[in-house]
Amino acid sequence: MAVTKDEFIQDAVNQIANYPTIAARYSIGDPLIMQMIAANAAMLAHLSDQIDVTGAEPFTKSRDVTVRADGSVKGILPFATPTIALIKVTNGSNSTMRIIAGRELIDQQGRYWLVTGGTTMLAGAVGYMTAKQVKSRALSHTVSKSMAFYSIEIPAAEVGFIADVAVTGFTLSNAFANVLGGDMVFNIKCDESSIISVQFGVQNLAGYQPSVGESIAVQILDTEGELVLTEAMKFAFRYAGANVGNLESQLVLELSEVTQPGADPMDINTMREIGSYPAIYDESAVFLSNFDFLVRKKVVPLTFLSIWNEAREEEVRGASYTNINSIYVAASKDGGDDDTLHKNIAEIIHRADSSLRYRRRAVVPSIMSVKLTLYITSVYDGAAVIEQVRTLMLDKYGAGSAWSQRGEAKMLEKDIYDLLRNKVEALNPRLGNLVINSITSAIPVVLPEHHRYITDASLTVVTEEAE
User: Fold this and answer.
1) In which order are the strands placed within the sheet that holds 161-167?
2) Within this chain, do residues 312 and 281 fall inside the same structural domain, yes or no?
3) Is pLDDT above 90 for 126?
């Protein structure tokens, strides 16, 4: 337990009698002695706090640097998710026009886009193509030393955040799992400072170990992450196409719809939640919870995700031969469409285990009602205390909270007591008290697809004067 400043001062006073001259100056309140003791006690108290936090850090991971370090070990990378959009192309020329994948675009805000799915349009016709909001850059590196797990540091994003990293001639491996010696693979790693590196293997053991003087080409995609796009936003080609420059000027490119909204890298609170999974949970999904961890690591941000197996399905809906070897997913995300979201999740799960049959379930909102009574002394402003409690409860259990984003989340009374008594000063004095009158759900039977949370209207907080 951390030692307080006052306790350190008392220890100093207890020892001061061994130094008669200083004791005499202390007895008359000499500012030089008093300030020196107080300053040393304050510094020691801060150090004691840090030691106390460090002792609990392997279990609580309260410090941001520890969360990032834990995330780097578990392969949680600070990558952003680029926006993917469907772009309407109107061919105003008198010729058939074709746009191929790989063309670069610029929107009216000066952001870079890359065409991922082209289109062909007859004269005067309308077509649709898909584009991803990324800007590509290249890094050429010459190997300076032949060593096991040779690494190349990736420079920070030039615009926004890094979205993806690839190495020419190599394929991405997950921590060199199931890799033979000589396989042309690379791994992506990150440290507690969010510095990203590509890493190569060990000669004759796992992967490929580059030789001195070898040139390695790295391609990096940067994105601006979360965007607010205007309806019918205009686009233009970054460079004119060969031999069709004049004709392409007659094409009208405008935003049709966003199929995948962009997202900034995982914030520290989400990373802390994802990092709460045991370290053995990785991308070689063996246990059910691995799939939850795997999807949350790959798809950011999710407003709700619940993944369950056939055993849990039959507990709530009964046995059926159609449940054999099935995995069930209920998921939602702000922006974009559910079809694209489930397609991405299915691909992630099937890369981990291609034998599973993917079953989609619709997310069902389930608003919970909570009533709290606060017993506080008259020295506290009741309205201010109520507002503080409401803010804490909605942050912890509201629709956007980490608690609400998991299927079958349970609201435990002990957690509410700990939250409010530690955060609300009015409940700390001897006479302060908290009573949880009720926690109820509109749905009597909780199913895995139920998205449970509280709202401002469903939370009732009243105060009574403590006796």
Assistant:
1) 135-142, 215-223, 161-167
2) yes
3) yes
Q: Would you say 170 and 54 are in contact if contact means Cβ atoms under 8 Å apart?
A: no
Contact 201, 149 (CB under 8 A): yes
Q: What is the percentage of the chain residues whose pLDDT exceeds 90?
A: 35
Does 79 reside within a domain? no
CB 97 within 8 A of CB 120: yes
Domain that holds residue 27: 5-60
pLDDT of 45-90, one tens digit each?
777 766 655 554 454 555 666 777 666 667 678 889 999 999 999 9
Question: 431 pLDDT exceeds 50?
Answer: yes
The H or E element containing residue 436 is: strand 433-441
Same domain, 297 and 387: no
- Residue 218 covered by a domain: no
Mean pLDDT score across all residues of the chain: 85
Average pLDDT over residues 426-448: 83
Q: What is the pTM of this model?
A: 0.61
Residue 16 is predicted with a pLDDT of 83
| Number of domains present in the structure of the chain | 4
Task: Name the nearest CA neighbour of 109 among 236, 7, 262.
Answer: 236
Q: Are residues 370 and 356 in the same domain?
A: no
pLDDT tens, position by position, 270-297: 777 766 665 555 555 555 457 888 888 8
139 within 8 A of 222, measured Cβ to Cβ: no
Q: What CA–CA distance (Å, rounded) separates 213 from 150?
A: 13
Q: Pick from 452, 335, 332, 333: which is nearest to 398 by CA?
A: 452
User: Are 253 and 354 part of one and the same domain?
Assistant: no
- Looking at the fold, whether 419 and 398 belong to one and the same domain comes out as yes
Instruction: Provide the 3-class DSSP secondary structure of residue 67.
Output: helix
* Residues in contact with 211: Cβ distance below 8 Å, sequence separation at least 6, in sequence order: 143, 146
Task: Show the tokens assigned to 340.
Answer: 């694209």
Flag whether 113 is in a domain: yes
- For residues 120 and 240, membership in a common domain is answered with yes
Is 230 in the same domain as 256?
A: yes
Rounded Cα distance between 290 and 284, Å, is 8
